[in-house]
């Protein structure tokens, strides 16, 4: 299977955009979706506090699944069950469930209410995904595990370590999933398993309940880096394995455009691992997740927007579907996306583009390439402004009209052009995203520069 990851913990798209996107994903070679809802799921009852103000409705969740089914995309919901649960533990009601009191990252697995809460969350998500054969329980990056007082006491009493705590909690979560009436197979990220011995893994019994998803996002990694992990997982009793690559969201928390060559090389590395798998370990390969992170965590800024990541996703999906990136693969990507050419090293695509969100792709490129540069050029290189309209002059409303007229029309024209452009950009973003995401993206990427120009124009007038 080739699952495209939809990370909804930031800039979750409107369902109307997904309706346009799913046929494209199918056409490019995807046959499934890993949907990480986080606070976008319509939790009910006591869990309603977890919902974003713009969370999908129950009808939206049903519609997403219908659209996926229509385009032969299997939906795999992802629920974080140990780490990366800031969206839960930030709430005062659940602060007592933190592993370390001052950090909202990870659950205290010893608090009885932790598993009670998780069962309630999992039950609601699974109940709304009865068509799904799989569920992903997250479980990556459980920061500060073993540092809480309850964990220290447990390790002292049981002569244990953080690995033993991890396995005990995960086994309880997996047993609950396995006991549900809809018969789901479980997946989990593998990074926390890497530090645990094969003997401990085998003894825990989790291998009968879950398949590890081995993630590695570096552009050029060697088969030898993955081989020992796969051997260990086979020795631990796992029968099958998944891999996870990345098409965006792994090259910097504030990245605005995915580096195409970087992500292509990551997928070419995974193809080499796949080819070598039979000699590395007796594991059944079940699928690969193309991750597209939208935030590094609940508190970080947005990284590359989904429409901006579509060219990278298209290259990566087609590379996996065709076993490499040939001229023919490149031509298919260009034809499907409506581009004339693409430059991998420069991460640029030439042509109008005919894919959902192409306007946003181009407009973000404009912001990225020209906004900051054009504003700073006026503020820092225009000698008349530096000489006769400095912050000192502006603060005291003191200036010679003769000198001010020499730059005024130029500044007003630049301001008018950018305000017009930004108005259109906001309209395009509004079609794809909810107001909170639009506001956040504008504040992070546009306002720091445009506000300087706005202030200059205000003082000039």
UniProtKB/TrEMBL annotation:
Name listed for the protein in its UniProt record: beta-N-acetylhexosaminidase
Keyword Hydrolase included in the entry's annotation: yes
GO terms, molecular function: beta-N-acetylhexosaminidase activity
Similarity remark: Belongs to the glycosyl hydrolase 20 family.
Residues in Glycoside hydrolase family 20 catalytic domain copies: 54-196
Record lineage: Eukaryota, Metazoa, Chordata, Craniata, Vertebrata
Entry annotated with the keyword RNA-binding: no
PANTHER family named in the record: BCDNA.GH04120, BETA-N-ACETYLHEXOSAMINIDASE
UniProt entry keywords in alphabetical sequence: Hydrolase
Catalytic activity: Hydrolysis of terminal non-reducing N-acetyl-D-hexosamine residues in N-acetyl-beta-D-hexosaminides
GO biological process: carbohydrate metabolic process
EC class (word): hydrolase
EC number(s) per entry: 3.2.1.52
Xref: InterPro entries: GH (IPR017853), Glyco_hydro_20_cat (IPR015883), HEXDC-like (IPR038901)
Stored Pfam families: Glyco_hydro_20
């Amino acid at each position: 299977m080739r699952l495209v990851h939809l990370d909804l913990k930031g800039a979750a798209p409107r369902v109307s955009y997904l309706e346009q996107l799913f046929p494209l994903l199918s056409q490019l070679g995807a046959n499934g979706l890993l949907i990480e809802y986080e606070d976008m799921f319509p939790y009910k009852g006591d869990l309603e506090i977890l919902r974003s103000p713009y969370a999908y409705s129950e009808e939206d969740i049903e519609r997403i699944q219908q659209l996926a089914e229509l385009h032969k995309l299997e939906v795999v919901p992802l629920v974080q069950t140990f780490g990366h649960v800031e969206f839960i533990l930030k709430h005062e009601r659940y602060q007592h469930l933190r592993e370390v009191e001052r950090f909202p990252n990870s659950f205290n697995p010893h608090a009885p209410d932790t598993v009670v809460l998780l069962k309630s969350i999992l039950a609601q998500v699974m109940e709304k995904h009865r068509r799904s054969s799989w569920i992903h329980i997250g479980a990556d990056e459980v920061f500060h595990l073993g540092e809480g007082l309850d964990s220290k006491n447990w390790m002292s009493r049981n002569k244990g370590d953080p690995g033993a705590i991890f396995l005990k909690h995960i086994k309880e979560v997996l047993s609950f999933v396995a006991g549900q009436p809809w018969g789901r197979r479980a997946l989990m990220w593998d990074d926390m398993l890497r530090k645990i011995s094969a003997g401990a893994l085998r003894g825990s019994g989790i291998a009968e309940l879950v398949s590890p998803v081995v993630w590695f996002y570096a552009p050029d990694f060697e088969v030898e880096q993955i081989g020992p992990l796969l051997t260990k997982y086979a020795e631990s009793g796992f029968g099958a394995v998944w891999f996870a690559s990345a098409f965006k969201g792994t090259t910097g928390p504030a990245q605005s455009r995915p580096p195409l060559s970087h992500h292509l090389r990551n997928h070419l590395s995974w193809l080499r691992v796949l080819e070598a798998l039979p000699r590395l370990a007796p594991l059944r390969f079940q699928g690969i997740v193309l991750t597209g992170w939208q935030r590094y965590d609940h508190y970080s800024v947005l990284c590359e927007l989904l429409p901006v990541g579509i060219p990278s996703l298209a290259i990566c999906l087609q590379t996996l579907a065709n076993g490499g990136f040939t001229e023919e693969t490149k031509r298919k990507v260009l034809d499907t996306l409506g581009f004339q050419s693409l430059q991998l090293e420069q991460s640029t695509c030439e042509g109008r583009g005919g894919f959902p969100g192409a306007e946003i792709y181009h407009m973000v490129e404009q912001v990225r390439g020209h906004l900051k540069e054009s504003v700073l050029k006026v503020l820092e290189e225009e000698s008349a402004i530096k000489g006769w309209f400095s912050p000192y002059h502006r603060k005291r409303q003191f200036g010679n009209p003769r000198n001010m007229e020499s730059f005024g029309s130029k500044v007003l024209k630049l301001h008018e052009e950018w305000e017009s452009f930004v108005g259109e950009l906001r309209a395009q973003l509004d079609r794809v995203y909810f107001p909170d995401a639009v506001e956040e993206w504008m504040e992070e990427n546009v306002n720091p520069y445009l506000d300087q120009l706005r202030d200059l124009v205000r003082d000039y007038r």
